[in-house]
C-alpha cells in the first residue's frame, strides 16, 4: 500500500505519519511518499518524521514495520504507483495567505484564509495547480483515490472532480468534531455502524465546506438534538454555540459549523482580526519560518516541531473566542484521522460513517433529482454531507429539505466560488471580478473590483493568469476595473 502526500513539507505531515505508523485505523501502509516543491522544508519534515518513527519504535507504539518514507520533489515520482493520494498543497505558501487576508482587511472586509474574499483569492491561485495535479494523478495513478485537504476544500474538490470524478473526496475535521461533541452530550455515538452494516443514529448535517449545520440526530425515530438546544448547560459545552451565541443557535434550530461565526458575527470578526495587530497568516508566516529555521539547526527537530504545534493549536481561530480552546472542543481527531478512516474503509471494506465533501450526485449519473442527496441543488455541486464509506466507495446520504436560509447561504457562496473557478480556467478578469463582487461577505461591485485589483497587485500569478479573454468587457485585458 503506497500513500503519497502532496505538500509533504507541510507542518502537519508528522501527524499523518504518526497515525499511519501507530496503525491508528488498523491499516498497514508500506510506503509513504512525501512530495513538496520546497526541498528545504521537505528535508526538515523528513527529519521530524525520522525522529518520530524512532521514538515510536523505542516506546513500543509503532506498528511493525514502519512505512518506508520517500521524499521527492518530482510530482510524477511521488504519484506513480500510489493507491491513495493526500493532497495538502498550499500554493503561494504562508506568504500568499498574508496577502489574501490583508487585501480584504485594508478594504474593511473579512480577511480569513478560507472564508470571504481571502478564500476566493486562495482558490484563484490554487485551482490551476489542483487541476494540473488531478491530470497527473489520472495519468500515472488512475486507480488511486485522492483525498484533498487543500483549501478552500469545497470548490477545489469540485474542480478536481472534473478530472477524477468520484475518486476525489474533500475532507474537513470540523463537521465530524461537532457531531461527535453533540453525540457525547447525548450519550450516543453518531458514527457507529452495527454488525448488519446499519447506522444506529441518523445524522442530518448539510452544508458546503466551512458553511454547514447539524440539524438533527435521530435515534429510534426521535430527534434528540432538541435536548441540546433546550439545555443552557449543554449549549455552553458546544464551542460552536459559544462563539455564535445560544440565542442565535436556538433561532436557527441547528448547531452551526464553527465557521458560521464569520457570517453571523462578521463585524465582530473583522474588528477582532484587525485589532490583533497581525492576521493569522502573518502569525503563521513568522511562526513557521522560525520553526523550519530552528528545526534545521537543532539536534532534535522533533522537539522543536512539538513545541510549535502546541502554540499553533492553542491559537486556532482565536478571534472567535475569549478563552483557549478546551480539550473537548477538539473532538474530530484532526484532518489526519478523518483521512485515514476514509482510506481504511475503502481499502479494507470495513464500513465507516463520516462527513465528507462529495458530489451531490455520482459523476456517472444523469443527475436527476432522485439521484441527488439534496434535490434542490445542482447534481455536480460538491456538498458536505454524511456518507457511508466502504469497499465500493463513498455513498452520500440524503438529508431533509433545506431551510430557505440554508439554501440561500449555500447557493450564494457556491455561485461566487464557481465564478472564481471559471476565471481560474479561462483567465477571465470579468468573471473573477464578478466572483468577488457577489460573495455573501462582499456584495458590492465596486468592492469586487477593488479586491481584484489588490490581489493582482499582491499576487503576480493572479495577474499573469487573468490576461483577459474574448468574453471580457473592453478594457479588461488592459487591467481596467470599471464596472
Sum up the structure in keywords.
disordered C terminus; four-stranded antiparallel beta sheet; 483 residues; alpha/beta; Rossmann fold; six-stranded parallel beta sheet
Textual characterization of the structure:
By secondary structure, this protein is of the alpha/beta class. The protein has a domain of 169 residues: Rossmann fold, CATH 3.40.50.720. 48% of the residues lie in helices and 14% in strands. The strands form 3 sheets. A 6-stranded parallel sheet has the order 3-2-1-4-5-6, with helices on both faces. Strands 7, 8, 9 and 10 form a 4-stranded antiparallel sheet that branches. The longest helix has 24 residues.
How are the SSEs placed, and which strands pair?
Layout: E1 2-6, H1 13-21, E2 31-35, H2 39-58, E3 68-72, H3 75-79, E4 84-87, H4 93-106, H5 117-140, E5 145-148, H6 153-164, E6 168-170, H7 174-186, E7 201-208, E8 211-219, E9 222-223, H8 225-229, H9 232-236, H10 239-244, H11 246-252, E10 255-256, H12 261-264, H13 266-275, H14 280-297, H15 301-314, H16 334-348, E11 352-359, E12 382-390, E13 393-396, H17 404-426, H18 429-437, H19 445-458, H20 460-465
Parallel strand pairs: 1-2, 1-4, 2-3, 4-5, 5-6
Antiparallel strand pairs: 7-8, 8-9, 8-10, 11-12, 12-13
Amino acid at each position: 500500500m503506497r500513500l503519497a502526500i502532496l505538500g509533504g513539507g507541510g507542518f502537519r505531515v508528522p501527524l499523518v505519519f504518526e497515525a499511519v505508523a501507530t496503525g491508528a485505523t488498523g491499516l498497514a501502509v508500506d510506503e509513504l511518499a512525501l512530495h513538496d516543491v520546497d526541498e528545504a522544508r521537505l528535508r526538515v519534515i523528513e527529519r521530524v518524521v525520522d525522529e518520530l518513527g524512532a521514538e515510536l519504535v523505542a516506546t513500543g507504539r509503532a506498528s511493525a514495520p514502519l512505512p518506508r518514507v520517500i521524499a521527492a520533489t518530482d510530482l510524477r515520482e511521488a504519484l506513480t504507483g500510489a493507491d491513495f493520494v493526500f493532497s495538502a498543497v498550499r500554493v503561494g505558501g504562508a506568504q500568499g495567505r498574508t496577502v489574501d487576508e490583508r487585501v480584504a482587511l485594508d478594504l474593511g472586509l473579512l480577511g480569513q484564509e478560507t472564508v470571504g474574499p481571502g478564500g476566493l483569492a486562495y482558490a484563484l491561485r490554487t485551482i490551476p495547480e489542483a487541476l494540473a495535479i488531478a491530470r497527473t494523478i489520472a495519468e500515472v495513478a488512475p486507480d488511486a483515490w485522492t483525498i484533498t485537504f487543500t483549501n478552500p476544500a469545497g470548490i477545489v474538490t469540485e474542480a478536481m472532480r472534473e478530472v477524477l470524478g468520484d475518486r476525489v473526496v474533500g475532507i474537513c475535521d470540523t463537521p465530524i468534531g461537532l457531531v461527535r461533541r453533540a453525540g457525547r452530550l447525548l450519550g450516543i455515538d453518531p458514527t457507529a455502524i452495527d454488525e448488519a452494516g446499519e447506522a444506529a443514529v441518523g445524522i442530518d448535517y448539510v452544508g458546503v465546506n466551512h458553511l454547514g449545520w447539524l440539524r438533527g440526530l435521530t435515534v429510534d425515530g426521535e430527534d434528540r438534538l432538541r435536548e441540546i438546544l433546550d439545555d443552557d448547560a449543554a449549549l455552553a459545552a458546544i464551542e460552536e454555540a459559544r462563539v455564535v451565541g445560544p440565542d442565535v443557535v436556538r433561532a436557527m434550530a441547528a448547531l452551526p459549523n464553527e465557521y458560521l461565526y464569520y457570517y453571523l458575527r462578521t463585524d465582530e470578526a473583522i474588528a477582532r482580526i484587525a485589532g490583533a495587530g497581525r492576521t493569522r497568516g502573518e502569525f503563521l508566516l513568522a511562526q513557521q519560518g522560525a520553526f523550519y529555521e530552528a528545526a534545521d539547526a537543532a539536534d532534535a527537530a522533533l522537539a522543536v516541531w512539538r513545541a510549535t504545534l502546541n502554540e499553533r493549536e492553542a491559537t486556532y481561530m482565536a478571534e472567535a473566542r475569549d478563552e483557549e480552546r478546551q480539550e473537548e472542543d477538539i473532538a474530530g481527531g484532526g484532518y489526519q484521522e478523518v483521512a485515514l478512516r476514509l482510506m481504511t474503509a475503502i481499502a479494507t471494506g470495513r464500513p465507516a460513517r463520516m462527513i465528507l465533501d462529495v458530489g451531490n450526485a455520482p459523476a456517472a449519473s444523469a443527475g436527476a433529482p432522485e439521484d441527488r442527496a439534496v434535490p434542490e441543488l445542482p447534481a455536480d455541486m460538491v456538498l458536505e454531507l454524511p456518507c457511508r464509506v466502504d469497499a465500493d466507495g463513498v455513498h452520500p446520504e440524503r438529508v431533509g429539505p433545506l431551510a430557505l436560509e440554508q439554501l440561500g447561504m449555500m447557493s450564494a457562496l457556491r455561485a461566487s466560488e464557481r465564478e472564481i473557478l471559471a476565471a481560474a480556467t479561462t483567465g477571465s478578469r470579468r468573471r473573477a471580478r464578478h466572483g468577488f463582487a457577489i460573495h455573501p461577505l462582499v456584495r458590492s461591485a465596486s468592492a469586487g473590483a477593488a479586491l481584484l485589483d489588490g490581489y493582482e497587485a499582491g499576487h503576480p500569478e493572479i495577474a499573469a493568469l487573468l490576461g483577459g479573454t474574448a468574453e471580457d468587457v473592453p478594457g479588461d485585458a488592459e487591467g481596467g476595473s470599471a464596472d
